[in-house]
Amino acid sequence: MKFPWLELAKLARPRSLSAPAEPQCDEVSNDALGSWLRQPKSRDTTTQENELDDVQAELLIEAAKVGNVDEVRRLCEVVGVDVDMRGYMGWTAAHWAARQGHVHVLEVLHRLGANLDSLDCRGDCLLHKAAANGQLQTCKWLLQHTFNVHATNKHGMTPLDLAREKVRHDKDATTVACEALLADAAECTF
């Protein structure tokens, strides 16, 4: 990503620490900064806006990953970042919060109007992410919010399938409880 203001800052470095006796206006016309300033500027700011959107999306996603609910709230409410912006593989901040088990972040994203039904590029919903990572409390929260335990991704896998796969590799109590919760939910037929 290139930001013109960063290029400008690099070009505008002082040549010496001592202040010149008088303004050096002619230097601007001969150095790289002057050359950059004289270039015709495009009125199309779409590229810059897209780069800024990408940076903001990454900041939101990173805040969700680490469970920084205050930063998630600030980015969405103050900065105006779109709560449903997507990053790598189509993951939103909600996907990362579910994967990492940050229910408090999911609650804030839900209140901010996030699309909690969004799917990533593999067709995974939030329940897939939580189940695949043995996030028991997140799975409980998602099931309470009527997430479908029978939802299949592009590989035909349900959240329960992913939880069972996780249990084969990691038999800690939370992962086993997560699989049991999803198995019980899958058996409910009412």
Question: Can you give a write-up of this model?
Answer:
This protein has 190 residues and is an all-alpha fold. The chain folds into two domains: 46-118, Serine Threonine Protein Phosphatase 5, Tetratricopeptide repeat (Alpha Horseshoe), CATH 1.25.40; 122-190, Alpha Horseshoe (Serine Threonine Protein Phosphatase 5, Tetratricopeptide repeat), CATH 1.25.40.20. It contains eleven helices and no strands. The protein has helices spanning 4-11, 25-30, 32-38, 46-66, 69-79, 93-100, 103-111, 126-132, 136-144, 159-169, 173-187. Residues 1-29 have low confidence and may be disordered.
Query: What's the Cα radius of gyration?
Result: 24 Å
In total, the number of domains comes to 2
Number of strands: 0
Mean pLDDT: 82
- Name the shape in a single word: elongated
Q: Segments where pLDDT lies below 50 for 5+ residues?
A: 1-29
User: Would you tell me the structural class of the helices and strands?
Assistant: mainly alpha
Secondary-structure element string? HHHHHHHHHHH
The CATH architecture assignment of the largest domain turns out to be Alpha Horseshoe
CATH topology of the largest domain: Serine Threonine Protein Phosphatase 5, Tetratricopeptide repeat
Beta percentage is under 5%
